[in-house]
Design brief:
Layout lengths: L5 H23 L20 H4 L3 H16 L3 H8 L3 H8 L7 H11 L8 H4 L13 E3 L9 E4 L10 E10 L14 E15 L2 E5 L4 E5 L4 E20 L4
Antiparallel strand pairs: 1-2, 2-3, 3-7, 4-5, 4-6, 4-7
């Protein structure tokens, strides 16, 4: 078994110390609290976290915690550096109180960031892409020369996003050719809408009819190998990491 590095030990110690400090404060306030923070193994897709970002106090609290974690300091370290009590810092980071301008200035000096940093999440705009039926943008991809029709149904306009998602409506007709050798980076999700096709991924073949779905690593050869019933229509959602260029 590999030994933990010195940095891992310091990080673990910092996390435990922070949890102990907050727990002590909560007990002093008559609040029963666990000594160790709960760890989430996965995100809840129905959580209201995005909605809560519209609340100024919550947005500020998340930025304060993010800045503190980036520096690798505990909440007690920040308390000592700012003169703000542990209880008040806990309330600020959890969005349970409105911090005064004086408090925000003290936090910005201790964390080495401008005061405006704390408002970044609150002011950040979230875009949406809406496409009316039949108005998807017809584009050319590798399969276009094989008679595959691609209609782009949406796009991401957020350059800060680390992931690119491309949703397509793909149509195959009697003019289309089979081509099971598509290959590109990322993951792909298919959902059948009409027709019947034998879709190949690597050395596996899947007979797909309306309502069927297929999710796979797009780096392996894939594509329609046999068109059983035409016309064929399916959704294709491709997801891959955004590159700097």
């Amino acid at each position: 078994m590999a030994k933990a590095s010195g940095e891992d030990k310091r990080t673990a110690a910092s996390v435990k110390k922070e949890a102990d400090d907050v727990a002590k404060w909560k007990r002093s306030e008559g609040v029963k609290a666990p000594l160790a923070p709960a760890r989430m193994n996965s995100q809840d897709p129905h959580a209201l976290a995005g909605t809560r970002d519209s609340i100024l106090e919550v947005a500020i609290g998340r930025e304060v915690r993010a800045c503190r974690n980036k520096l690798g300091i505990s909440i007690s370290d920040l308390s000592a550096a700012t003169g703000i009590s542990l209880g008040m810092l806990s309330k600020i980071e959890n969005g349970n109180t409105s911090a005064s301008l004086t408090t925000l200035q003290a936090l910005s000096r201790a964390l080495g960031v401008p005061v405006t940093t704390f408002f970044r999440r609150y002011e950040e705009r979230r875009s949406a892409s809406f496409v009316k039926a039949g108005e998807g943008l017809s584009i050319e991809r590798r399969g276009t020369r094989n008679g595959h029709q691609y209609h782009l149904l949406g796009y991401s306009a957020e350059p800060s996003s680390k992931v690119v998602v491309e949703p397509y409506l793909i149509t195959l007709t009697k003019e289309s050719d089979v081509f099971p050798l598509f290959q590109h980076s990322g993951m792909e999700f298919l959902h059948m809408l009409e027709g019947k096709v034998v879709y190949r991924h690597s050395d596996m073949r899947y007979t797909m009819t309306p309502g069927d779905s297929l999710f796979f690593d797009a780096d392996a050869p894939h594509g329609p190998e046999q068109m059983v019933k035409l016309p064929i229509r399916f959704l294709s959602i491709i997801c891959y990491p955004r590159t700097d260029d």
